[in-house]
Structure formats: structure tokens, C-alpha cells
Amino acid sequence: MTLRLLVVASETPTQRAQRRRHAGASSDETYKETLLSLRPDASVETISCVDTALDPPGFDIEGFDGVFFAGSPIDMQNDGLEARSAANFMSNVYQVGVPAFGSCAGLQIAAVAAGGRSEPRLPHMKAGFVRGITATDAGRRHPLLAGREIVWNAPAMHAQIVAELPEGGTLLARSRHTPVEAAEIRHANGVFYGVQYHPEISLAEIAIALRRETDDLIAQGLARAAGDVDEYAQMLEQLAEAPERDDLAWRLGLDDDVIVPAMRLIEIRNFLSFLT
């Protein structure tokens, strides 16, 4: 079966261009590459839910087997044009009934579109990795988390969280400062699986993201100086090039659930299996 997949961007055109300059690809383009690495026989298209100029001609959600929402800095707690556009797009996905998956902002978009609520993450942004994600009883039995231990780590970069799941939402995992790390949402005719973290992002991409957020990391007290961020990012890049470096893994506090791509990508792989 050849899967026809849609990746949805929620970065603005400016944000997409900035990420291309820093990381070589926008978030939706990274997601597309990840999906093709797992299913090279799939057909993968991209679209923006905040920039209609990117809509391909003759676009029809019903023609897809699955929809993926990439991450972005979108602020779903404020009733701005971009947030409304993203929520309306997701509402249409729910109505059509095509199964969907999302990372980070994708989870927030899906929750708000179904009647949930997002808010700023406190005490500060999550930058780099989230430690101690813990599956709920429902999560331990859920196909999205099949293959995960009860507790695991994952790449993460976000300043917003889902504060309240909508009716029809099932909490699958949480962490210390993030009440919803993974969830299933059933709404209208559709089902959404989502995670607050980024299984699709590599160690090298996290290094790039941290350097891009250097000023904010210092302002929030997560780093004392730009050199601290750069040193940490350099270790991530070295570990990405040589994943067998146990010394770097030890210094960074990372395990195979982050370092080994097959383990980092478990949720996306499970969702692709769900589609078939």
C-alpha cells in the first residue's frame, strides 16, 4: 500500500525562511524527510495552515491517508489570525475523519481545535530535552507508545503546553512541568495522536535550535553565557556524528531513547503502522 501523507506547517513564511537559514529546512520539510526515511515508498505533500499562498491547487484532505502537524512557535492561547487559521484547518481534518498526528505545536493545535486549552509553560521554556516522560495507565496500553518504557526522554523545544485536554481527549503521558506529553484526541469524525516533544528532530537539529535561542536561554537563567550554549551544542553535534561516544552521552545525560533514531522515532513509526 502506497501511503499518501500530508505534512502541515504552522510556521509563518518568515519563520520558515529563518529556520531554513539556520537548520537548512523548515519544520514541515524536516518532517517530510523523516517520513520518507521511514516510508520511502510514501507520497508526501506539504501545506501551510497559516499561509494560504502555500496551498497546492486542487487540495483535498480526503485524498490523504494521514495528516502530520509539524512544530512551530505558534501561540494557540491567543485568539490571533494564525491561531484561528490553524484551529480551523484542524477542525476540518477532524470533520473529514483522516487520522492525524502532531508534535509540539501540532498537539496544541489539535487540542485547541477540539475545545481544549493551551498556556505558557512555567517556570520557563523547555530547551533541548525533556527528561522523565511517564506513561499513564492508558498510555501503557496505547498503540502510540508501543515499545516505549514506562519512563523515557525525548528532544523538546517549546514555551507553550496543553493545559487542558478537550472532551474526547485521553492523557497518555506526562512529565514534571508538562501535564500533557502525549495524548489521543477523538473529536467529530476524526482521531488525533500527538506528543509535546519532537521525535522527528535529530541531535544536530537540537544543537542548531539551542544556538538560535541563545539570548532567551540566558535571559531565563538556563545558561550563563553564549559560550555555555555553544559548548553544549558542540557536544550534541559530536554525539550526532559519533553516537557510540559513551563519554558524551554520559556528560549530556542522554540514553538510547534519544540517541538511536529507531528508538527516538517510535511514536511516528507506530502512527504509520496505525494507518496501514
What do these coordinates show?
The protein is globular, with a radius of gyration of 18 Å. It has a domain at 4-123 and 157-201 and 261-275: 3-Layer(aba) Sandwich (Rossmann fold), CATH 3.40.50. 39% of the residues lie in helices and 24% in strands. The longest helix has 16 residues, at 81-96. Helix 3 (81-96) links the parallel strand 3 and strand 4 (100-103). It contains twelve helices and eleven strands. The chain has helices at 13-23, 27-38, 81-96, 105-113, 137-140, 203-212, 214-219, 226-241, 246-252, 256-259, 261-264, 266-275; strands at residues 4-9, 43-48, 66-69, 100-103, 117-120, 126-135, 151-158, 160-164, 169-174, 182-187, 190-195. It comes from Fulvimarina manganoxydans. InterPro entries: ChyE-like (IPR044992), Class_I_gatase-like (IPR029062), GATASE (IPR017926). Residues 61-204 form the Glutamine amidotransferase domain.
